[in-house]
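User: Here's a structure from my thesis project, written as structure tokens. My advisor, Dr. K., wants to see whether a designed sequence matches the one we expressed. Can you design one independently, without my sequence as a hint?
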């Protein structure tokens, strides 16, 4: 099997399990009572410089010892990862650590747009407070929302 290829039983997008076939790891839990910020990315102009718009996500990496979660934050203008952290559990500490790295390395001005899905890790009070303390503006979208492709639209050639 080629590197990165999945068994035919996983063609529907699942991931190979040790003995039980395929299953899908869910990294977005949108079923919560936390406030949901509007999707400001959908209306945002393309960034003309760094530290104007950051986007975040949590992909998972299957390893021989289980799942490893990678919280990453990308600057849309430079297309560089500005913060990341990895862990064996997916919780708010994971995304807060990536945010801390981003803030320390980049020191953005107030008003930067921070966009992610509306999962509980990004919508919880602790994360919202960290964004507010740094002067960042939150933007959230549903995982299946077609406007998720707005990040791709905004990655057009820089100004």
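Assistant: Designed independently from the structure alone:
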């Amino acid at each position: 099997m080629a590197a990165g290829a999945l068994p035919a039983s996983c063609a529907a997008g699942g991931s190979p399990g040790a003995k039980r076939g395929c299953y899908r790891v869910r990294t977005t839990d949108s079923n919560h009572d936390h406030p949901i910020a509007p999707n400001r990315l959908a209306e945002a102009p393309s960034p003309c410089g760094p530290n104007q718009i950051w986007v975040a996500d949590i992909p998972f990496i299957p390893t021989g010892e289980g799942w490893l979660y990678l919280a990453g934050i990308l600057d849309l203008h430079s297309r560089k990862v500005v913060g990341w952290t990895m862990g064996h559990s997916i919780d708010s500490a994971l995304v807060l650590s990536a945010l801390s790295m981003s803030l320390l390395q980049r020191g953005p001005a107030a008003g930067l747009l921070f966009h992610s899905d509306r999962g509980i890790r990004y919508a919880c009070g602790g994360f919202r407070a960290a964004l507010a303390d740094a002067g960042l503006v939150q933007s959230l979208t549903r995982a299946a929302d077609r406007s998720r492709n707005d990040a791709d639209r905004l990655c057009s050639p820089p100004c």
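When you compare it with your expressed construct, this may help: Residues 1-25 have pLDDT under 50 and may be disordered.
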